[in-house]
Amino acid sequence: MTYRSITCRAAAAAFALAGMTAAQAADTKPVRFILVGDSTMATASGYGDAFCARVIRADTCINLAKGGRSSGSFRAEGRWNEVQGLLKGSAAYRATYVLIQFGHNDQPGKPGRSTDLKTEFPVNMARYVDEVKALGATPVLVTPLTRRSFKDGKLENNLQPWANVIRTVAQDKKVPLLDLNADSVAAVQAMGPDEADTLAVAPKPAALPAPAGSAATVEPQGAAKSAFDYTHVGAKGAAYFARMVEREIKAAIPAIATEFRPEEGQ
Fold first, then answer.
1. Model confidence band, residue 136 (pLDDT cutoffs 50, 70, 90)
2. How far apart, in whole angstroms, are the C-alpha atoms of residue 65 and residue 99?
3. Residues 102, 169: contact at Cβ < 8 Å?
4. What pTM was computed for the model?
5. Backbone angles phi, psi at 97, to 5 degrees
6. Which of 1, 6, 8, 105 has the most Cβ atoms closer than 10 angstroms to its Cβ?
7. CA dist 170 to 140, 164, 224, Å?
8. How confident is the model at residue 11 (pLDDT cuts 50, 70, 90)?
9. Could you tell me the domains of the chain?
């Protein structure tokens, strides 16, 4: 064997080793989650922080959801700029998943926030998807968490039209869908109004009137949630729905199942 062939083989082996090392290094990078949505996902009134607490490396889960925001106002206020800035710095992560959930404040009767169900809401959601993809991350669309308003023993799902739009956008854009609306409706209907009331921010007052059926709650922008209602969740509700979203994302993207803490008893 000539000196030249030995040198070439050594160089090839070194190159292969370097490539293997780079691949192994990439595998050690964390996965990042960014949460974008309204108060049902936000800190203190939604499930977002409880979801992040389920991630093994909780510091790589960023909850940017904000109360009172719609698919339109979240962008109009410049909040989406922060998300895009984070996505431009993705080299330190193996993958970034952006969970996007709107619908509650896109409903009619909310000046400055409501969006048209046919002409604006689908365009807004599709634009979020396209921009996340363009920055090398994975958009994950989430249908809106149900309200817990019952009428004659049946849960009123007035968010279904918005959930349907999100399902269509996810299908058209071929991106993962977490059908939180369908799953939360089924779960809350099964538990009934009394148990569902225990998921709220605060205990239900004895004199609270019954929910107004299909009427959408007009939520003040960014107002702190400290009283009982049928939309927002306290610690129990946050933990319950965070686990639901965790199960949904594991089913939709099996490769990230190991990014979450083991369930109790496992």
1. very high
2. 10
3. no
4. 0.85
5. -115, 125
6. 105
7. 8, 10, 31
8. low
9. 30-259 (3.40.50.1110)
SS (H, E, C) 150-208: EECCEECCCCHHHHHHHHHHHHHHCCCEECHHHHHHHHHHHHHHHHHHCCCCCCCCCCC
Distance, in Å, from the CA atom of 236 to the CA atom of 10, rounded to the nearest integer, reads: 60
Which pair of tokens denotes residue 245? 């979203």
Name the DSSP class of 55.
Answer: B
Place of tokens 């509700």: 237
Torsion angles phi and psi, residue 260, rounded to 5: -110, 155
Report the candidate in 200, 34, 38 with the shortest Cα–Cα distance to residue 114: 38
What distance in Å separates the CA atoms of residue 212 and residue 19, rounded to the nearest whole number?
62
Q: Please give the DSSP secondary-structure letter assigned to residue 58.
A: G
- Our measurement of the distance from residue 9's CA atom to the centroid of its chain's CA atoms, rounded to an integer in Å, reads 50
Shortest CA distance to 241 belongs to which of 58, 45, 104, 105? 45
Taking the CA atoms of the chain, what radius of gyration do you get in angstroms? 22
Confidence of residue 160 (pLDDT cuts 50, 70, 90): very high
Cα dihedral value 108, 187, 37, 103, nearest 10 = -20
Q: What is the pLDDT of residues 211-226, one digit of tens each?
A: 554 445 555 555 555 6
* DSSP 8-state secondary structure symbol assigned to residue 42: S
Residue-wise pLDDT tens digits, 19-55? 545 555 567 899 999 999 999 999 999 999 999 999 9
pLDDT in tens, 53-91: 999 999 999 999 999 999 999 999 999 999 999 999 889
Determine the pLDDT at residue 24: 56
Angle in degrees, 0-180, between the axes of helices 79-87 and 121-134, rounded to the nearest 10: 30
Residue whose token pair is 């896109």: 106
CA distance 188 to 197: 10
